[in-house]
């Protein structure tokens, strides 16, 4: 029989993985993995401002993420700097400003490692309600926007020709990612959330024949990574958040090896 805190940890990880997997597919298709890192760094600024202003930390992260989304989409319109340059500028600026703001909170005891790398074993019932309630809302929004987001991701010019609001969709995707970062803070921390977004999606790619199948497989692999990471952490006494990421990496290596072996089989079977 599992202890209660392990059950809560598994439920929290599954809740995050179910939304992070499909969103990660969109990020992989857009080739914007750096966007997750940038949002994570902006989350540190949100944490710092929340502690300094005595705001709820999760709410502060959401506000910082929304501000980041508005700023990024606005800066993208000037077309003088590439998106990856803008992401680097905003990511490192947010991280630096967050650390500077934290320096003003000298009287506060800040568990910075917990925020950076997560503490899923300390998840409480209230955290579960936030993760599953917020995750259900995000998943419903993603399902509603899936087709337009997919078209704007794969064929942006065609999406414009069909009259889709590409700019609004880009902003919506950034907002969904920012809110996912806030949800995932307790599970893997703000520095490792990008891994939970990208690695299961990349691992799912060889196993799926359609975008929808890839999204479902990515969510399933994310849940497997959570279970494997928490189990490995429990038995090997390793940090839980990083262990989840290592489990996801192992799944990625397995799927890549299986795909490579599958591609080699027909060549061996063919004559000559």
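^ structure tokens above, recovered residues below v
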């Amino acid at each position: 029989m599992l202890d209660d805190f392990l059950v809560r940890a598994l439920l929290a990880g599954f809740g995050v993985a179910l939304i992070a997997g499909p969103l990660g597919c969109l990020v992989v298709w857009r080739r914007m993995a750096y966007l997750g890192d940038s949002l994570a760094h902006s989350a540190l600024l949100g944490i710092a401002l929340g502690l300094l202003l005595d705001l709820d930390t999760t709410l502060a992260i959401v506000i910082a993420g929304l501000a980041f989304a508005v700023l990024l989409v606005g800066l993208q319109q000037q077309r003088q700097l590439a998106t990856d340059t803008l992401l680097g500028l905003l990511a490192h600026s947010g991280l630096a400003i967050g650390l500077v703001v934290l320096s003003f909170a000298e009287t506060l005891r800040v568990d910075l490692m917990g925020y950076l790398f997560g503490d899923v074993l300390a998840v409480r019932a209230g955290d579960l309600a936030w993760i599953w309630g917020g995750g259900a809302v995000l998943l419903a929004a993603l399902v509603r926007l899936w087709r337009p987001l997919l078209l704007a991701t794969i064929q942006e010019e065609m999406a414009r020709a069909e009259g889709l609001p590409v700019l609004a969709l880009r902003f919506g995707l950034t907002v969904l990612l920012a809110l996912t970062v806030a949800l995932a803070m307790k599970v893997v921390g703000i520095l490792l959330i990008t891994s939970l977004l990208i690695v299961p999606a990349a691992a799912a790619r060889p196993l799926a024949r359609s975008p929808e199948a890839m999204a479902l497989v990515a969510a399933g692999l994310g849940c497997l990574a959570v279970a494997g990471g928490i189990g490995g952490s429990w038995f090997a006494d390793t940090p839980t958040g990083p262990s989840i990421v290592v489990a996801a990496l192992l799944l990625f290596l397995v799927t890549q090896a299986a795909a490579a072996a599958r591609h080699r089989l027909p060549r061996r079977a063919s004559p000559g």
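DSSP finds eleven helices and no strands in the chain.
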